[in-house]
Structures
1.
Amino acid sequence: MSGFGYRNVVVETDSLGLSGMIHGEEEIWLILQPIIHDKIHMLKANLGFNVLYSVTPLWLKDVVEADMPMETL
């Protein structure tokens, strides 16, 4: 991503475990160690990059909230 000139990138995941592994909050599964360590290195090298855990993606959240009845908001 940084090769394209992006300075701020948010990667969303619906996996709380994966997000926890990347942020050092959970033990990294042995099979995922090479991948997770690569992502951790990428995040440290690019301070504007972040991994966010979200059940509802940010790009969809406004649409979902706009479609909800007012009493549930």
2.
Amino acid sequence: MSVINNDDRFIELSSFEIREEDEFNEIDLNNFQLKLTQITEEFLQSSNISIKEDSQEFIKKISIISSFDSYQSNHPTTSTATVSKNSITTSYKNYFPISIPAIPWNPITPLYKMLNQYQPPIKQKEIQTKENQFQQFAITVAGGNGQGNELNQLYWPQEIFIDNDKSIYVADYENHRIVKWKLNSSTGQIIAGGNQNNPLNYPRDIIFDSEINSFIISDKGNKRVILYSDRNQTDQQILVSNIDCFGITIDQNGFIYVSDFENHEVRRWKQGDVTGELVAGGNGKGDQLNQLNGPSFIFIDKDYSLYISDRENHRVMKWGKDAKEGIVVVGGNGYGNSLKQLSHPRGVIVDHLGQIYVADQGNHRVMRWCEGNDEGEIVVGGNGNGNQSDQLNGPAGLSFDNEENLYVVDQGNHRIQKYEKTLN
């Protein structure tokens, strides 16, 4: 009997009518096991297989000539394998050596299935995508002249927005103003706040609605979110009132999301809404998956998944569209400075590969995590609290420009730092 015929019998038996697990009875399972045993015995007695005892117990050396699904039928492959209770290793002549992960040996386990669990390494290599890397020494693009209210200074900046011309709009928190810094400029221009005509009170965040050519500002001290026209800088509209607003973001439909630090929730506002719709948290302060504790900055992706810096829980939560609870995607292992931990996270953004960047404020670094990983990696900073070009002091907001350069609001140093992307 040939190996190929045995393969066909295994496939025929394995594709027997699929049923729910609880519909199998003992007779079904006994019959199934009996057939597998019979085929396995015939397989081991096949004339195409030679077996000789090794000096070690329970180990067989097997030579097999077969064709695998991974190759064209006109490319026969000779393989040799050593089978034990613990693992299987094999090599393919004229191709490349491989090592197959440990597979428990069982006398009724089809050998062809054990071998076919392996996928050639070339397939794994083809799907790898390069990660962005960044210069470790930053360029100061706004502020950096000490704490103050002059046009070349910032005072405890919080968040930023960067337009297509690489102009940077800064929520200059302690100066109660929004300042625009053009590319390569040494001073900023006040576009909102800073005077009595259009007062702001500790602005925390700023985004831009391109559809209506207006800024949206989280005006924390006034407990409101306002719409501010870029064309008419005296024209402002209150969108949301009576809210302890922190972070804001906008989705592709123009709906606005606001984190409420005091009420431990995030709400979504559509045009004309009065109270907004609860989309995350809202179950009191806590660390359960349906709770938040002091949500700060937020980010929404194209799939309407919401990423929330859950500051006092030292984690980042991801809430899918219409979800009743979130999942922990960054941190969540308590306060600390290991690669598995965060300390009072602030800014959060996600790149086009789905990698999550977090301003780890208490650890003076920016971390990058891939969803599902147990730990992250330090992208920039992490060299202690300081004001050198490779150091940060309480980083807050994060942003990318249209060339994927990374910008960090270096809050304690009253400056905005640009980390240029490098080619791998």
3.
Amino acid sequence: MTLVSITLLFYCCCYYNFFLSCCSYVQLRKYYYINQNMSWGDAREYCRTHYTDLATIESDNDINGLQSGFSYEKAWIGLWDDPSSWKWSLGSHPNSWRWSSIGEPGRTKGGWYDISCERNHSFVCYTVFHHVNTIKSWYSAQEYCRSHYTDLATIENAMENDMIFNDTQRLYFWIGLSRVPWTWSNRSPVSFTNWQTGQPDNQNSTQFCAAELSDHKWTDEDCSTRMVFICHKNNKYVN
């Protein structure tokens, strides 16, 4: 498996009581090249089981990141013909400029072309994390993530842990881990941890939520502490 991450910064503003209020969030879209040969349908099932879905590509930045991060001749992405129109695996419609040429799409590097879904190829999966640059308590952050995305971030391995931290400028932030016992916000079991030495210590018997620090290590904190946080956008299937 090969991993590349692409970071996008978004701003949103609105007027409230005659004042302009703005906030920002960073979207971290992580692509995983899976060097296993599968049909398109099996590849989608694999991606939905282990990540979010087969790769959705939204911009030139995504394409450039994939070209610089991976080396492959052919690989499935999440685009399919239903057959009324081309759609991404999660249901959104692509922009036509991404095809390499009119008619039978071209076979230039990074270009797309259509082939039988039954053929076996390697493939690209992706996941999406959002760094929300608004400070909240752990439970308020959880509520925000569940309302706007899927949940607070679940971190399943060291590679994800490092990539998530490398794409934020904050010294520490909430992740989706809380106790008792330690469980991810989405109720999935904890198979990977990266606690700082001496942590978790439940100081003063008030520290029941986990945050990530500047050294990529985790610490337990009082859940009422306000800090920025990371949401995870999971797969929402559209058939």
4.
Amino acid sequence: QGEREFAKDNKTLGRFELTGIPPAPRGVPQIEVTFDVDANGIVHVTAKDLGTQKSTDITITSSTNLSEADIDRAVKEAEQYAEEDKKRKEKVDNKNKLDGMIFAVEKSVKDLGDKLAAEDKAQLEELVKGAKDDLASEDDDRIKAATERLSEESQKIFAKVYQQAAGAQGAQGGSDGTDGAAGDEEFHQ
């Protein structure tokens, strides 16, 4: 309960865990979270794993409400720390963006396998290693630069692989040029 950007800066109303979810790659588990506030101010929170159908819930009663003075203090605190919270959120978002990009590049390298030239694979692995070092540095400027570098360089390599695959498919297709498309004929009215 509170007005701050990060949960740790607010008052915890309750905690619960959704257990029994089998190990899976990042992004695979789908968790549906439902918040329901009734007329009495009682909050019902339910989390359900869509894969296993396991769910857990918690009910938070109005006895945890803040006093008017506590609410005023929370609002003032939120205003006081708004800029700091914004910067902290931006830094967290930048880290998450780079972390997600590292994951995506590693997954693409694994998925492409032999379709990726050895030198391209080595370059991507080196880029990922550098990005991981930058991520661990906690330096926001390094993290942003690493995100930009990894994005640009990996896109170039993956575009090249895509073009090669498209060219190979075109060559296998054996088109004789008679696909019914209009040629260079002129149209006269």
